[in-house]
Write a structure and sequence with these properties.
Blueprint (H helix, E strand, L loop, with lengths): L5 H24 L3 H4 L1 H9 L1 H50 L7 H46 L1
Helix pairs in contact: 4-5
Amino acid sequence: MKCVGWKCSFSLVLVLGAILLAAVPVSAQQTPAFFAAPSTTASFLATPEISKSLNEKLTQLDKDVKAAQSSADNAWMLVSAALVLMMTGPGLALFYGGLVRRKNTLAIMMQSLAMATLSGALSTRFCAAWARTRTQIMLARFRKRLSWSTS
């Protein structure tokens, strides 16, 4: 008998599902090797000089990892963000340029880049104005509180 079409795929999925369902309870009943002998693990950790040196090493390792993460991770995130920002303009231009006829491609690309530039400039302008206003409000409140505390 020849297996053709979706019936073959459906039967294959059913067989694989049955095998998977049969295998899961068997694997769930087995205990991992590191849980099998808790007495040896407890006697190993009960030794005070080993646990003290182990704790010191773990503390030093934790400090080293945190120092490495703070410098390398921050640098990589800054580089990644810069690359994404540099790809956004040309990516949008190529995307919208591919949606129109060949003779209008350049015009759409230029419009896309012009709008990206305009929106970037406007957001920079308004965000800077908002930050400046918030800073002036905070400074005014601080001066007011400072004048109350001195008088």
